[in-house]
Amino acid sequence: MKRCAWCNENNPVYMQYHDAEWGRPRFDDTYLLEMLILESFQAGLSWECVLNKRENFRRAFDGFERAKIMAYDAEKQEKLACDPGIIRNRRKIKAAVDNAVIFDAVVHEYGSFIAYLKQFWDGETIFERDLTHNELSDRISADLIKRGMKFVGTTIVYSYLQAVGIVNSHEKTCFLYQTK
Fold first, then answer.
1. Tens digit of each residue's pLDDT (9 = 90 or more) over 60-91
2. Is the pTM of this model over 0.90?
3. Which residues pair with 167 in a beta bridge?
4. Cα 177 to Cα 23: distance, rounded to the nearest angstrom
5. d(CA 130, CA 118)
6. Residues designated as active site
7. What is the helix (H) or strand (E) element at residue 92, kind and residue range?
8. For tag attachment on the chain, is the N or C end more exposed, with fewer CB atoms within 10 Å?
9. What single string gives the DSSP state of each residue in 131-161?
10. 93-137 residue pLDDT tens
11. Phi, psi angles (nearest 5°) of residue 47
């Protein structure tokens, strides 16, 4: 089976992610928060690095339960910063907590995070390749930053949109390639 060139076929975790998750629509709020947090930790690093630590992140961040993350105090954040199983960047850890609070406010305002995203997007999968951002990621990023989120630049938001299945970017040679 031919996969996208970025998929390290020597890494079963990466292959599973590529084959069963990346580019497939999944819009429940817990998953959308998980992917937003994980993508923010990717800033300056490789996705493979983050993905290899995903189970540790799930453990450390209480299964990405929004209410629990929002309650993380300085002591809990310091504990996370000392956890060798995750990326221990204090700025990203604080951003994850602050972003969860903002995510929660968005969910309360719109009913769900996907409803919020749909104010920018028509609900149809976008099929495009070889981009690092687009007009959609530019608009969402600008709005999230305006709301106070950190580590949500347009490139990170574009990767997020790919991860959750709003943008499908499988390469033409990949067995998952689609045009519509």
1. 999 999 999 999 999 999 999 999 999 999 99
2. yes
3. 126
4. 10
5. 23
6. 17, 39, 47
7. helix 90-110
8. C
9. -S--HHHHHHHHHHHHHT-SS--HHHHHHHH
10. 999 999 999 999 999 999 999 999 999 999 999 999 999 999 999
11. -65, -35
